[in-house]
Amino acid sequence: MIRIENLRMSYRKNEALKGVTFELNPGITGLLGPNGAGKTTLLRCMLGIIRPGGGEVVFPPGMRMLHREAGYLPQKYGLFKELTVQEALEYFGVLKDIPRAEIGCEIDECLHKVNLLESKRSRVGTLSGGMMRRVGIAAALLGKPSLLVFDEPTAGLDPEERVRFKRLAASLAKEHTVLISTHIVEDIEALASQVVILDQGMVCSSGTLAETTALAEGRCFLAPDSLVDEGSDGYYVARFVEVDGRPLARVLACTAPDGFTPTTPTLEDGYLCATKGIA
Amino acid sequence: MRHEGNRVRRLRAFYELKNIGVYAFVPPVVVTVLLPAGFLWLRATNSTAAAVFYYANTGLQLIAPLLAAWWMLFVTKERVEGDGRELLYLLRRKGESLTALILIGAYLALLSPFALLVVSSGHCDLSVLLIIYAWCLFLASLAFWTAFVFHSSPPALVAVLAFHIVMLPLLSALRAFGATAWSGGEDVVPTLCLAIVSAGLLVHGEIRSRRFTG
Predict the structure, then answer these.
(1) Which residue in B87, B93, B214 is closest to A79 by CB distance?
(2) Cβ count near B200 (within 10 Å)
(3) What is the mean pLDDT of chain A?
(4) What's the confidence (pLDDT) of residue B4?
(5) Residue of A2, A22, A4, A1 whose CA lies nearest to A205
(6) Considering only CB atoms, which chain B residues are within 8 Å of A49?
(7) Do A211 and A30 meet the contact criterion of CB atoms below 8 Å apart?
(8) Strand, coil or helix: what is A260?
(9) Among partner residues B8, B19, B212, which is closest to A80 by beta-carbon distance?
(10) Is the model's pLDDT at A117 over the cut of 80?
(11) Contacts for A153-158 with beta carbons within 8 Å, 24 or more apart?
(12) In what order do the strands lie in the sheet with A246-252?
């Protein structure tokens, strides 16, 4: 278990992280939060890419230095576009101090995992966005790190690549602790066992998928859209749906307004309750 | 261990050069093919001594130092502007300045045949050649330092061009100062000054290269 304790970070007067504390357990942990919540800053502080203003990351005994132990896929990946996939990975292998004798086998192994073995002689710059992302994942896997950190891994991917990523992440979770940062709730719903919700630099909620979903228990309602006022202060309109041909609004509120019917919450409802302060 | 470290550094420098693509070939093609070929052609066609002298000095003082910064501008661009460069900072890359020195050394080695050709033909003194080498080292170090201090490559290009323009008068001033200091100082002072400043730029650039700016 890796423990993040009271992590703080400021950019001049803007406080990006306000004492973030949570635990990372084996399996997939989803870091959810709206844009600008501080997710990327948190990941960078955790990994030592930027120095936090305070707090610490506590590793289990025997874990090596984190930069060797962590594989990281940045939000945008497009390094070394003129090199072939194999050369780019060899470069990262060299940076990760992988012995020369092992580097070739390990590159093949990582490319096999991300299903890119046939493209290893292709130039990185000629690959599609999804394939480039997979090169980034292969680079993250080099050195057999125990922690994998993916920042917005599915952003900009087509549905087929997203499905491929989810399968890959699920298989990686068998051997690695995986932290996925995203604002796409469905990705986390499909993959994660733990969910941490970050908003405005603070952890709003941390728990299992069920615990996070339960945040919206008794607070999630369906109502005919004619009854719903989107500007109302009394409730939050999550989205509009159609049930049996009837247009309805899915609404989150602390108490049920008149004419609203309780319904089963989803992770997205839990996430919205946490970030919108509906508790 | 040290041997392994050097191999790793050379390998990194090689891949960083390769990542420049076709533009990586500009300095070697210019200093090992075009400049010597032009020089030999001028001599073969019995051009005037003034024309050969002008060509040699233009090549050595105008083109060669500028091309010394060429690779550095491209290599640092990936590091300070590349998509996903935080990955490179995660891996705590140290020894950026040593990689820079490898690139500068490789460039000076490529320049040497042309430089020696010019020196052997009597169109340039060896002492002036040392100043030109120091000039090359300075401009490449300046590109390295500026890129990491500003975390952007355009300021590095501007700094290199600006200093290249003012370098001749600057060197004249240094030579004049050196000449008043001691006999022969007009060659030693500019070379030493440029070498010391370059070392400072590389050391400070190395420190700044470890700091990520997103």
Answers:
(1) B87
(2) 12
(3) 89
(4) 59
(5) A22
(6) 86, 89-90, 212
(7) no
(8) coil
(9) B19
(10) yes
(11) A153/A73, A153/A180, A153/A182, A153/A187, A154/A182, A154/A184, A154/A187, A155/A75, A155/A182, A155/A184, A156/A129, A157/A129, A157/A130, A157/A133, A158/A130
(12) A236-243, A246-252, A220-224, A261-262
CA B44 to CA A160: how far, in whole Å? 65
Q: What is the pLDDT of residue B22?
A: 94
Scan for tokens 């050391």, then name that residue: B203
**Coil, strand or helix: which one is A278?**
coil
Whether residue A278 contacts residue A264, with contact meaning beta carbons closer than 8 Å, is answered with no
Confidence band, pLDDT 50/70/90 cuts, at residue A245: confident
CA distance readout (Å), B24 to A94, A234, B16, B31, B173: 22, 63, 10, 13, 34
Question: Taking CB atoms and an 8 Å cutoff, what residues of chain A touch B89?
Answer: 49
Distance (Å) from the alpha carbon of A260 to chain B's nearest alpha carbon? 46
**pLDDT per residue as tens digits for the range A139-182:** 999 998 889 999 999 888 888 888 988 999 999 999 889 999 99
Query: A4 in helix, strand or coil?
Result: strand
Q: What are phi and psi of A256, to 5 degrees?
A: -75, 120
Asked if B180 and B174 count as a contact pair (C-beta separation under 8 A), the reply is: no
A206: which residues sit within 8 A by CB, 6+ positions away? A22, A23, A194, A195, A196, A197
CB A125 within 8 A of CB A135: no
Residues A61 and A228: beta-carbon distance below 8 Å:
no
CA distances from A54 to A19, A31, A202, A205, B90 (A): 8, 20, 14, 21, 19
Q: What is the pTM of this model?
A: 0.87
Kindly list the residues from chain B whose CB atom is less than 8 angstroms away from the CB atom of residue A74: 83-87
**A214: which DSSP letter?**
G
Mean pLDDT of B195-199: 96
Chain B contact set for A139 (CB, 8 A): 87
Q: Are A166 and A191 in contact (CB under 8 A)?
A: yes
Quote the CA–CA distance of A144 and A137 in Å, as a whole number: 12
Nearest-Cα residue of chain B relative to residue A133: B84
- E-strand spans in chain A? 2-11, 14-24, 27-32, 54-58, 70-73, 147-151, 177-182, 194-199, 202-208, 220-224, 236-243, 246-252, 261-262
